[in-house]
Design brief:
Layout (H helix, E strand, L loop, with lengths): L6 H13 L4 H7 L3 H4 L1 E4 L2 E4 L7 H13 L2 H9 L14 H4 L8 E2 L2 E2 L1 H20 L12 E5 L6 H9 L9 E5 L4 H10 L5 E6 L6 H18 L5 H4 E5 L2 H7 L6 E3 L16 H28 L6 H16 L3 E6 L7 H13 L17 E4 L2 H4 L4 H6 L6 E6 L9 H18 L3 H10 L4 H11 L7 E6 L4 H22 L10 H14 L10 H15 L3
Parallel strand pairs: 5-6, 5-7, 7-8, 8-9, 10-11, 10-12, 12-13
Antiparallel strand pairs: 1-2, 2-13, 3-4
Helix pairs in contact: 1-4, 4-14, 7-13, 8-13, 8-15, 13-21, 14-21, 15-21, 19-20
Bound molecules: 6-O-phosphono-beta-D-fructofuranose (F6P).
6-O-phosphono-beta-D-fructofuranose binds next to loops.
Length: 549
Amino acid sequence: MHLTELPSWKALWSHFTHARDWHMRQLFEADPQRARTFWLEHCGLRLDYSKNRITTQTMTLLLQLAREAGVAEGIAAMFAGERINTTEHRAALHVALRNRSDQPMRIDGEDVMPKVRSVLERMAAFASRVRSGQWLGYTHQPITDVVNIGIGGSDLGSLMVCQALRAHAHPRLDMHFVSSVDSAQLKETLRRVHAETTLFIIESKTFTTQETLTNAHTARDWFLRRAQEPQAVARHFVAVSTNLKAVSDFGIDPSNMFEFWDWVGGRFSLWSAIGLPIMLSIGEHNFLELLEGAHAMDLHFRDAPLERNLPVVLALLGIWYINFFGAGSHVIAPYDQFLHRLPAYIQQLDMESNGKRVTREGRPVDYETAPIIWGDSGINGQHAFFQLLHQGTHISPIDFIGSLDSRGSLPGHHEILLANMFAQAEAFLRGRDAAEARAELAVQGLAPAEVERLQAFKVFDGNRPSNTLLLDRLDPRHLGALIALYEHKIFVQGLVWGLNSFDQWGVELGKQLAQAILGELRDELPPAARDASTTRLIELYRRQRTQPC
Ligand code: F6P
């Protein structure tokens, strides 16, 4: 049945007519158990979701929505290796990459686990040789720098995890990530490394991505100018891809290629050979811990009842705000400097998965889908964009993410960090009403007229929803669980909205147009008929190339 026809959807709308007027201050006053009721723990992750505009009745209706929308069946289909990516006729079986049990995982009857394990073993053997210093460059020196060349899912996951787990990084290996085709990034990186001791990893699922291949060719030319011998490439370039032919056409020996498969979506690929930079940085043991954490979350997601299922609950809360309150964005605010790339990572995960306007059947939706995901380090955000979150006109639910463990922190710092995180969530919940604002101003000794004039600016509505996610500690296992939590949350939202969360056709048009425009910028193609604005921009560039300003 169509989403908006479901009984639970209609019941939620009628429930919403009351819920929109609730203030969370009253909800907390009315129910002293609230912080216990809306609390879940699993895999060393604690979720406090009590600071949401919900009651137990709201959750009952949302869970009914999940049942009626077929969430349980969708989860089962994913784990069964069904081709749930219907536009590309592919399974979405990234859970097999971190299946640490001895159970098979099948696609069309074939157990994919032997090949998953075999690639993991190859990665581990290679990583061990590089890390131990056995793998030598063309001048017989150990590798000191790893440059990953890739973009989107072939960049963000490894980059985010390597930064998050910097405390576990190999002391000799400096990790660099080049994604942009703006040569400034590659130039800057090459300035900092030496050809003799640098390993380049070219990561691309398709091995056709313009930005990655351009950077890869430039890096190889740079390397050959220094090494002077083509055989040296084999000691310094490896590839990760699903496209063996394109990799060997590029000139990388297939024995230096680490494979993955079409049933691994780019944005879900850090668990595959795409995670090679991660394994090089943190080692096999820690990489396996990352997989273990994700696997624990997978089992929880597959087996826990919907009402105690962390990804399902997070997904339903999101739906409550997006579809009923009209919240168009969602903020990720990590209170951990090492997690500062997490918002960017989740941005791709969510917006590329559910930024869709038609259902799996190809019918336009008549409800909102993915929100705009944004965010940054929470402590920095407090002094920048939080103003809008507190007093602006938009409601953006926020995920506060922090860890309980202060080991590794300088004395006193971790408490200040957590105090701020808890305080912000409290402020978003309670706000400050006019009476409180007046009282605060009066204490400062201001004249009554001035108190009255200023109080309007000092009022915070509060009632702004947030989730608090606390990790026992930021280590490979907890990070693995955290990432898998978001992957599954997004999948559940896609199921409720009836979307295919595993394709990304929306990125194609710009790529095709860029090819045509490139031909014109390089005078290889005649001007095409197009809008006056784009034509003018192309002409401007071509003119300035001959007559620089
Ligand atoms: O353009 C979007 C996209 O296809 C992403 O989905 C993907 O993660 C990224 O580009 C990189 O693609 P590839 O790994 O094939 O180079």
